[in-house]
Structure formats: structure tokens, C-alpha cells
Amino acid sequence: MELTIENLGRRYGNQWALRQLSLRCGPGMLGLVGPNGAGKTTLMRMLVTLLEPTEGTIRWDGQDTRAHGEALREALGYLPQEFGIYREFTGRQFLRYLAAMKGLPKDLAKRRVDEVLELVNLERVADRKLTTYSGGAKQRLGIAQALLNDPELLIVDEPTAGLDPAERVRFRTLLASLTTNRIVMLSTHIIGDVEAVASRLVILQEGRMLADTTPEAILASTAGKVWSVTTDQATAMQLQATYQVSAMIHQPNGVLLRLISPGRPHEAATVVEPSLEDAYLLATGKQEVSA
């Protein structure tokens, strides 16, 4: 199985949301990251044939999806960023309904519903109304519906947004378990999600691909460029205005800063091990502060 993207672009009026994107994807997990507005959702919607590209091609196993979109859709599982549910249904009823919509034969649909409920650990609540489900349970149900046809290509768009930390970890673990003999594309702006599960990292910024790399490679390129220093409030504000800051923590003895810079930003600064978030900020040139 192979997904090939060549010089892909999408324009809305005079504005390009995505331009000149080329990728070749085989089995495994690809993390697609970038700030809001980078073009991630536009790319997802073109890949699942909900949007027509303005330029370029998408091929599934060598076939252009413009002419052979059905072949891709048969192999596709999709969890969109906004996943709607039918509040009057139970989890099991909802999945059986969607299996029928996907055209699964009745006997196969019943078996697959039972299998995916077990896979996402929802058997105990399968016969409860969806109104009783937590945010994490609803997202696991979203993955369950995407897996009903046992897809070779699984695309998930911002799946952990709004989940609490424990639910996010459980969901990431579930995604990581689904990569055998399957292409999984995870679109997110939460760098920790990619760091935990993806072996390949694609960074989008302002509609273009900034990097196609691995977490290990981008961390290696950031080594020696992340610094830690504790200083007074006034100096901290000066450093913040000059350098990229990935963390600012107010402590009794001063302000602890985590700074990204090729050279030593302050005489008292010491080099620390970079995180993937540090590497992402260095690559995109964006300054984000967590206090």
C-alpha cells in the first residue's frame, strides 16, 4: 500500500491554503503538525476526497484519486476534527448504523462492530446512550467508526484536542497500536502527541511543507540550542523580547526561562536537552510561552 502526493495545492479565491506539497507514505505513523491555519485540515479533506485539489495529484496504490476515488474511499478510515454523533443512539447502535451506511453486509457489520468496540475498549459502555460518554470515550468511538472497514489508510484530524491529559495518553496509545500494516496520518498542533507515537514528522507552515523528518533527526539538529536560566523579572522580560521562549516559570528565587538560541543568550544560561516542542519552535520560528 502506498499514498503518493505530488505538488498538491488548494486555493480559496486568491488565497492558497496549501501549495506544492509532495509526500510518499507507506505503512506506519506520520505526524502532521503546524500552527492553526497551516493547511493541515485542507490537506486532510483533499486526501479523503471531500475537497478537489486546485493543482497536483493524489495517488493511492498508483491510481489517481480524481479518476479512481472509490478505490481510496474503500481503503479509508477517517476521523474528522468535528465528529458528530446521534444523541439518541447507544454506541453499538451508532456503529451498526454507520456500518450500514458504509455498505458492510449485515453479518460482517455485526462482527466488525463487536471487534472495534473491543479494540477501543468500549464494550462495557457499548449499550449506553452516547449522551453519557466522556470526551475520551466519544473520540474512541470516532476511531471505532473509522476502523469498521478495516482500513489500510487511517486519517485522524486533531483527535486529542479537548481531552484531559489521561484521556490523551490513552488515545495516543490506541493510535500507536493501529499502525501494523496500515498507514496512519495524525494531524495535530499538540507536539506531545507526535513525540509519543509518530516515527515520521511533517511540519506545515503557511500552506507549505517546512520539513519532512523524524523526531530523532529534528531533536539532533536542535541539540546545543536550548538553554535554561533563572533570572530576575526585568531581565526575563528583556530575554523574552529577544529570544524564543518555550517556558517561563515564576519561582520564589526568580523567573526560570527555557530559551531557544544558537548561541548563549545570557552569561548564566546552561545548555539543556531539547524537547520536540523546542525543536518545533526552532523550525517554525514561532514564539510560544507556557507559564
Describe what this molecule looks like in 3D.
Helices cover 33% and strands 29% of the residues. The protein contains ten helices and 14 strands. The protein has helices spanning 40-47, 69-74, 91-101, 106-119, 135-146, 165-176, 191-197, 215-222, 233-242, 276-284, and strands at 3-12, 15-25, 28-33, 55-60, 63-64, 76-79, 153-157, 183-188, 200-205, 208-213, 226-231, 244-251, 254-260, 270-271. Helix 8 (215-222) crosses helix 10. The longest helix has 14 residues, at 106-119. The termini are far apart. The model is unreliable at 287-291 (pLDDT under 50).
In short:
The protein has 291 residues and is α/β, with parallel strands linked by helices. 33% of the residues lie in helices and 29% in strands.
From the N-terminal CA to the C-terminal CA, the straight-line distance is 44 Å
Helix content: 25-40%
N-to-C order of helices and strands: EEEHEEHEHHHEHEHEEHEHEEEH
Number of helices: 10
Strand order of the largest sheet: 6-7-8-3-9-10
Number of strands: 14
Low-confidence stretches: 287-291
Residue share in β-strands: 25-35%
Output mean pLDDT: 91
Structural class: alpha/beta
- What is the general shape? globular
The whole-angstrom Rg is 22 Å
Largest sheet: 6 strands, mixed
